[in-house]
Amino acid sequence: MTHSLQDRSVVVTGGSKGIGKGIARVFAAAGAKVVIVARHADQAAAAAAEIGHGAFGLAGDVTSLASMESAMKDASARNGGLDVLCANAGIFPAAKLEDMTSDDWDMVMDTNLKGTFHAVKAAVPYLKNSDQGRIVLTSSITGPVTGYPGWTHYGASKAGQLGFMRTACIELAKYGITVNAVMPGNIVTEGLAGMGEDYQRSMAASIPLKKLGTVEDIGHAALYFASKEANYVTGQTIVVDGGQIVPESLEALNSA
User: Fold this and answer.
1) Which element (helix H / strand E) includes 13?
2) Which of 122, 9, 124, 105 is nearest to 56 (CA)?
3) CA atoms of 169 and 225, how far apart (whole Å)
4) Which of 48, 52, 117, 195 could cross-link with 199 by S-S, CB 3.0 to 4.6 Å?
5) At what angle do helices 18-29 and 215-226 cross, to 10 degrees?
6) Of all helices (H) and strands (E), which one includes residue 59?
7) Gap between the Cα atoms of 242 and 4, Å rounded
8) Strand partners, 11
9) Can you tell me the mean pLDDT for 17-21?
10) Residue 256 confidence (pLDDT)
11) What percentage of the chain has pLDDT greater than the value 90?
């Protein structure tokens, strides 16, 4: 599987930190030519330098179609085309439903859901020319499977990504492009660290594997979807959560 990504051109949106940087690191280590796209050019460049393996950073804002078109054009020109888009950029500010404003809602939707559309739309003209065109979305268990107070907008955006995926994979199949999604559970990132140690301990206790995931765990799932071996897989999801969504209650987990 690793060999099938050698020298492939890969773009990771939201790749300057967290899960995105983990995905970029895994692809770069597999020999791919990785371009990290993030809103701030300096952060994208710093992440690329940290990852090494020839990774490169570009500025790009997923809330702007023109910005994504420019980023995909530059990435394709740099690496001789585009084979894989990892549409990862996302935000998750907390706001309870009764306190949430329309602006709060729009900000999350513009980044997480419309941003996915922009990145994919901008990438398709280049992916059509690849013999291994792949789109991998970073969704979540929150929204499609579970819920968490303060994240109605986030959950809706992540469930929306899967609805988008299921039709996009049909439309793009004629070009040999596959569209799949990774659904992370609780992954150790800067954002999770901000929720405090008590939250991290309580979440680890509710997971059958008794630990939180790493960004590389998500990267390896994305790598599979992008590989030659996943050639016949499209419109599918992989849950990467240590078994978190399986027990019907904490009692079920503790009695194992």
Assistant:
1) strand 9-13
2) 9
3) 13
4) 195
5) 50
6) strand 56-59
7) 27
8) 35, 85
9) 97
10) 74
11) 88
Query: Which pLDDT tens digit goes with each residue over 138-161?
Result: 999 999 999 999 999 999 999 999
The CA distance from 86 to 12, in Å, is 5
pLDDT digits (tens, 9 = 90+) for 38-62: 999 999 999 999 999 999 999 999 9
The residues, ordered by sequence, that sit 6+ positions from 150 with a Cβ below 8 Å of its Cβ are 94, 95, 96
CATH level 3 topology of 3-186+213-247: Rossmann fold (3.40.50)
- Give the max Cα distance, the chain: 56
Radius of gyration of the chain (CA): 18
Say if pTM beats, i.e. exceeds, 0.90: yes
* Beta strand extents in 213-252 (DSSP E only): 237-240
Which residues does the annotation mark as catalytic? 154
Spans of all domains in the chain: 3-186+213-247
Beta pairing, strands 56-59 & 237-240: unpaired
